[in-house]
Amino acid sequence: MQSISLILLALASVSSARSVSGGEYRRSILNATAMANSSFYPPIPVNKNSADFVPDVTGIPLLSKNESVQPWNGVHHAPTAHTNALFARSCSGPVATTPGTFWYEQITHNGISPFINDGASWPVFRNVMTGYGAAGDGVTDDTDSIQNAILAGIDGITRDQNKLGTTGQPAVVYLPSGVYSISKPLQLYVGTVFMGDPLSPPTIKAAPGFNGNTLIYGKDPNQGSTINFYIGVKNLVFDSTNIDKDTTFTIIDWSVSQATQLTNCVFNMPSFSSGHTGIAMPEGGSGTYLGDLQINGGVVGIDMSNQQYMIKGVAFQSSTTGIKLSHCFDCIIQDCTFQDHSIAIDMSSNSVGSLVVLDSSAQDVGTFIETVVTGNGGSSLILENVQNNGIGSAQTVMASGNSNPILSGNVADTWVMGNTYTPGGSPTGNYVGGATFTTPRSSNLLSNGKYFTIAPPTYEQYALDQFINIKSVSGFPVFGDGVTDDTANINSILSTYANCKIIFFPQGTYLVTNTIFVPAGSRIVGEAWSAISAVGSNFYNPTSPVPMVQVGNAGDVGVAQISDMLFTVADVLQGCQLLEINIAASNPGDVALWNSHFRVGGAAGSKVETNCAGAPSSCKAAFGLLHLTSTSSAYIEDMWGWTADHDLDSGNGQNIAVGRGALIESSSASNGGQGTWLVGTAFEHNTLYQYNFHNAQDVYAGMQQSETPYWQGPGLSTGDELDPAPWAPALVTPYGDPDYSNCGGADAQCRMAWFEYIDSSTNLFLYASGFWTFFNGNDLTNCNNNAACQTNAIDITSSSGIYMYGINTKSNLNMVTGNNGLLVTMNNNPGGWGGVVAAMLAEE
């Protein structure tokens, strides 16, 4: 075991001894490498789920579409008051009490589904007791009552018929406090939020003689696992203790993908079980995040079988195995506790790319982590700030079948097994079987020595009178119907009640023609992903982008929290920046987004869905998704920034050229010394980049998942849009847009979107990246696991203090490049889905 203090890999300018410019030098290096290595790619391990990880680009039928709702053809204008605010208010924030009833159970539920026939009558909120006859007494069989609440539809169409698309059937199935006895499995569908009362979480309990081997099927059976989006399960207790402990039984099948939420739940299984599993993913999926759970008993707490995942804030108690990584190309476990297990984490399947374990601990555990030693990128393991108070010699890392531990005891800093790129090391990297490095975490990112995290709020401490339903403010009508311009009245209500009330947006699509300003003191809660959607000429100019939603102004400090919302566009709007955050938090977590997502195209209610099957240059549908400006500090958890690669609500082609994914310029030097956290995020299919860290400072990112636009690359059949086209005439220098000068002019494989573009940044702590290329020019056939379908993935220029752990790429020749000729190739780092690097450490 070696100890290395990491002070840098120089990423400064190209040496003056070189006779060519930096751009020319990099281009010659990258092209030469591509030619030299094009004939050799390492074999990719075959796993039982490999077939599940081919992208599903089929449409989901929406057979009851309301064709009359077309916001791009003109909007209705709601009546507005003569002033911008209802009346002056002076508040010190909503007042917390000890309410006896959960506010959400009491508030007016007037949400709608605008884009289906008779959608104004669609039942969004379903109370299983008051509306469907469930008893919740622990004796009555409540199976049918709960399932009927899940299935309820409209005009003879129920939610199991696969006729309402993904976005047309939002349903919040609510369980008041009680014990619900279940005799057979419950089945969820896309668009379902299955939730209980957090004040006294209800229990769903398998009855004796339960007919089946799964309590809850979270995956919609009508859709493949990789298109199971927009499903939530929260504030519930699950109990399988009536089922024989040795019977094979799963509490929840969670074979789902992005924009899903599993949080604030307890799983109770029999102790000393040989058959029960809490969370399983038998059909795979493309997930991002789950967290803040308690899992007790069973043989396995979580059986992970997914492309990538972040598990945060889960307490495992008395399972034989806490987490079994049956398959995961890119996984991260953060702030988890394990107690009384034979094995806390089993990654011995040889079907893991990399695993990062942060800020976690084990107590009375036989083996903390059981793994395999590959000698290459596969099964890379990174431990950081890990405490192991195990049994006997505290076996922290064990190789499967070996009686001698690879590592014992605690890990105070960072311990790595896998391929590493470090200052002064080999330019082709070094494989280490267990080395300790120093990761100098910024104090701005920490709480009690750990990276700061915070659970999604339920606001359960506030009574109903501390909430405002934005559709129920007298004199200021807000419709959320996808037709009416709600801009002025939303802004009036937000400005009036900032720092006074929590604003509830019932389900619907809130059409806006100008910026919605979210002032300091705001707390916003959506319902099954309530949408704010832009339309109109204010968002047309790509050289002067306008935010659709702007959170605070530069220099603001305070509270701004957003939960369960969706940001989208109703038209092709090349000047629309969907979300801009300027405000800095008073305290970590005061400025935050949870379970809030972006969607451009791919759904009813937008011209982008139906008019973007041709050349991408004709569908620059939005300027960018997320912009964290230099003055901002924010905590973002469970966010999917999706430019549609396929149609959720039909079968329309989707060649969409949104300019930018996430632009992170947050800087502790500009925001008063605050950090920024990205926890379980994914940005996909944006044209220039997915993540851009530009002049950023003190940022933590745990789990970054991305895919390149499917239309990019060799074989492009819809026109000659090679990056930075079709945005080349409108590159915005202050935004740090890449110009692709590192590529030859006609090099289509090089001129594809950067997954991560890092420029002039410092103190970035980036853990668990999964960057996947599936297509070249919408053609999958020649882009298999062994091919190099994209030249470059990550670029680091003029930056320092960059600490990257668990880099995973698929079909990318160069995993990391830099402006001094830094080159990390897939060929030198075989493993996972193509290439895996355990540690890439750069300091200028």
From TrEMBL:
Q: Does the keyword Hydrolase apply?
A: yes
Q: Which Pfam families match?
A: Pect-lyase_RHGA_epim
**Rhamnogalacturonase A/B/Epimerase-like pectate lyase domain mapped to chain residues:** 125-342, 473-533
Keywords attached to this entry: Hydrolase, Signal
**What Gene3D superfamilies does its record include?**
Single-stranded right-handed beta-helix, Pectin lyase-like (2.160.20.10)
Keyword presence, Signal: yes
The record, for InterPro entries, names: Pectin_lyas_fold (IPR012334), Pectin_lyase_fold/virulence (IPR011050), QRT3-like (IPR039279), RHGA/B-epi-like_pectate_lyase (IPR024535)
Q: Which GO terms describe its molecular function?
A: polygalacturonase activity
Q: What is this protein called?
A: Glycoside hydrolase family 55 protein
* Species annotation: Hyaloscypha hepaticicola
